[in-house]
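#structure-requests
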Amino acid sequence: MDVRELIEDLKGDLTCSICLGYFADPVTVKCGHSFCTECLLRCREETNETLTCPECRGVIKYSDLVPNRSLQDLSITAKMLRPHLLQSMVGLTTCDQHGEKEKFFCEEDQRLLCDSCLLAPEHKGHQVLPWETAADKHKEKLQETLTVLRRKEEEFKMVKNVVKRRKTYCKESTYNLKQSVASEYRKMHQFLWDEEYEYLQRFEQQLRDNLDKLEEKKAKLSQQIHNLQRLTLKVVENLDKLPSEMFQDTQGTLEKNEELLLQKPEIAVPVLNIYSITGLREMIMSFQRDITLDPESANPHLILSADLKSVQYRSVPQDLPDNKERFDSALAVLGAQTFTSGKHYWEVEMEDKTEWQVGICKDSVNRKGELSSSSEDMRILAGYTSENNFYLRYSKNDFQTSQALLNLGIFLDYERGHIAFYDVTARSLIYSPSDMEFEGPFRPFFSFGIHDKDNNFAGSLTICPISNQ
């Protein structure tokens, strides 16, 4: 090992591994490593955690910090002697080519030169400085770089502290936001629970009113049956009497019971009042689908619009091919879309006084002959008007409503086997049968009923476009 290497090793032994400069006010810790006191404390300030040795990561207690005066003195001495030692070594360095002392330094080629090298043509015009001047100049550049690096380090530390504060703020604000959102949902849940309770209470009252009316109708019919039975007995008795008595009694019996003979039985139909459900339509609208009509399935009496969104009845049938997909008796048409999974929603507008059947059916439903709305292949809701009253029917169950339904929503959840019908205008549920397992593909179904030459179906069914709400 030459003298230069010894000098560099000495500097390494007297250099702080944190600032890379000679020790200033050094301390030695329990693990044996030494650092500038200020550098070591700055490490603690940087991490804001337990103080650890930058060399071996061992935990340092403040009681373990031992000032090292000997190391301080050696560092001061070495810092003062090093330039003189290096300067004295100039004579020890000789040029390999000329065997002369290398006393100069070429800035362009970054190499030491002897007198002969200095006169060589390849160095002509180059900036050449005495060795000591060049060393001082390079030290200044290194010192400037070190200053910039430390300033940049402080800048990054400041930004790091900002990021740490923002991290803490992010955690706190996210927690607070979660708490606020949870609170809002609790309010919504409570509001919907209260609304549900009130809704069900109305249904209970509605059920009691309907049962009272039905019981009243039942009692009236029972009384009418009893009166008819009494009249029947009198008629039978008169049939067994002598002609003279029969003539006399028959006239009186018929006159007294003329009103009874003119009575007609009245069928009682429960009245179904429906109520809006907060947020219902907004929720199911996220599943709205763009439904169109399938012209290949349309009954010849049905006219489809150019955009395949609307259907009307015409008494004179069109001349269409009787393909296997086409309905021939039911005034029906299917949607072009097929559902085998997922959640789907669409809306249909009905003109006033229109009789209709809307819902879903199996893709394999029989297209020829009459259709039964109670078939397992069908899940449909029907609407019709009778004696100025509007009725809804699902399967064989009829419900009277306060007014005609003009806009119907249909929601399908295939995996649950669930279908529900909604009054779009009132934002309320009309009917939702018990969930049943779906098998195979289903399609939207639209119909005016069964064709009869005496019927004239007015109005139209129109599929609503995709809403932006």
